[in-house]
Amino acid sequence: MEGKPMYKVLLVDDEPTIREGLRTLIPWNELGFEVADTAANGQEALQKCEQIRPDLLIADIRMPGMTGLELIKSVRSSELDMHVLILSGYADFEYAKQAIAQRIDGYLLKPVDEDELTGYLVRLKEELDSVSTSGRNRTEEREIKLETAIQSLLAGESDLVSATAGISERLDWDSYEVILIKPITSNEIVPSLLALIKNKLRILFNERERGVVFTMEPYLGIVLNGGIGDDRSRKSIHKEIWDACSGHVIDVFAVSGGEVHGWPEIVESYQMALVRMKDRFFLENGTISLAYRDKEYSLQPESVEHVKQLDRLFLAAVDTLYLALEIGNHLAARQLIQETAEEMAGSGSTEDEIKTRFVQLFSTVLDKLTHNRSEMHSLEIRAGLVEIYKETRYLGLIERLSAIAEGMSSSMDNAGTDTVIKRMIDLIHRNYRENLKLEKLSELFNYNSAYLGKLFKQATGEHFNTYLDKVRIEQAKLLIEQGLKVYQVAEKVGYANVDYFHTKFRKYVGTSPSNYKKKE
């Protein structure tokens, strides 16, 4: 009987021995039935009929209080629909004839003959199966027509009259709300998986009259009966959708197009959901995201000015992220990642644009770090960067990038036990070519700028900028001695302006770079 429906039976008799005898006499499960409950009188039986809605009622015709005959009449006068078998003795034949008029399926003489009852059950199961199958077929046919009408209406392939012909009564609700669903798998989603998820959603919504599930490539959708409700309700429905997809997907996006109050307006709800779904990378996880009107960005995505803005942001981020990792401040790195991502998202950058920019950012910083840090495992880190393209959510991307940054920071020997000044001196000697500013380092070391400058002067006898200039000039002298051109030397030691380099060189060496080269 596996996979077949089990039909519910209610046994009614005022004698406990007969009730238990019937329960144990027959191999109910083998015949496709299960004894859902028993009752000792008609009144109790009527209550249980309303509670469990049995498919088959087997009742004694003579019971104190409400008789079996009165019970059957009450059942037939209500909306309860079930098959009925009665139990009677020879003396109850007249009662039995009246019961037959109440559309019973048969009567059994006491003591009940097992073979006779089994014969009834076999015939009743065939009838129940037939009704169940035809009922399911009719239901499926109605659902197919309804889904086709919804698809036609949303696709603009038919007018409202033809799209809703014959189904307006089925969807005569107070309000409607379209939810679009996009399951995400690690590979391309296959039609059989969508069909499986869709069937689970149908059980949750169609069969419980909570909505109508439909397919609108590349999404699944639900026309929800009534509004989606408050935050708690949104999360609850999202969990149901997630559970229907669970075990087959890595993520599920579900967005709402907003509540509407007329069947024709579901097109508007659908269009709003489509707009929201396009921005799914930025959506919150664990709930159904609500519709919103189009964002107004200060710059048009992918415009020339937009690209220039991102270029400026990129250059600033490179310096800050590099220094944060250099000194081992992974919290500052995380903050930089969050702020950079927010600025890109706020300017209208797409998911692919944000991911690509971050890969470029980390690759550039990694190149700079590996130049000075032999302990950096660059190949492993680069492999991790490629994986960020698999992130389906904006917040997930930030978390993954922050974890990569923390891993890069912890893999370096940042001399954590040394004083801040020693670490600053070490940083200068390894990074003199960078755009080092006391203000930026103060932020990354979590110090007041003026106070850190004072500590540095006390420890080295020089102001920060003077110390940095002297380190750069000493390196410049070595490079000049190696035969490099003056403009090349200036660039390599961190001076973007050659004239400014000349000024600094003369200040600390007493002659110009060219004259120093001639002396060599």
Automatic annotation (TrEMBL):
Coiled-coil segments on the chain, per record: none
GO biological process, one term: phosphorelay signal transduction system
Single GO term (MF): DNA-binding transcription factor activity
HTH araC/xylS-type domain segment(s): 422-519
Record bears the keyword Disulfide bond: no
Keyword Cell division tagged: no
InterPro entries attached to this UniProt entry: CheY-like_superfamily, Homeodomain-like_sf, HptR, HTH_AraC, HTH_AraC-typ_CS, Sig_transdc_resp-reg_receiver, Tscrpt_reg_AraC-type_HTH
Protein name stated in the entry: Response regulator transcription factor
Biological source species: Cohnella luojiensis
Lineage, broadest ranks: Bacteria, Bacillati, Bacillota, Bacilli, Bacillales
